[in-house]
UniProtKB/TrEMBL annotation:
The lineage of its organism: Bacteria, Bacillati, Actinomycetota, Actinomycetes, Kitasatosporales. Pfam families: Fer4_13. Gene3D superfamilies: 3.30.70.20. SUPFAM superfamilies: 4Fe-4S ferredoxins. One of its GO terms (molecular function) is iron ion binding. Signal peptide: none annotated. This is Ferredoxin. Keywords: 3Fe-4S, Electron transport, Iron, Iron-sulfur, Metal-binding, Transport. It comes from Kitasatospora viridis.
Length: 70
């Protein structure tokens, strides 16, 4: 099984909210500026496909998934 860590670049984030719409269990947006807020930095591997969708869907590539064999 692959463990996944979610890493975000908050300075790069444009606040588009695509990640929060794709995977609200893991991502939200800060009320103050709309930028990404990671709710679960080490989500279950069962969410890998949707995590990849969120990573790929970020218009400014602010999300990176670090995969580790576990």
């Amino acid at each position: 099984m692959t463990a996944v860590e979610v890493v975000v670049d908050r300075l790069r984030c444009a606040g588009a909210g695509q990640c929060a719409r794709t995977l609200p269990e893991v991502f939200d947006q800060r009320p103050s500026d709309g930028r990404v807020l990671v709710l679960d930095p080490a989500p279950p591997a069962a969410l890998l496909e949707r995590l990849t969708d969120a990573e790929d869907g970020c218009p400014v590539q602010a999300i990176r998934l670090v995969r580790r064999a576990g």
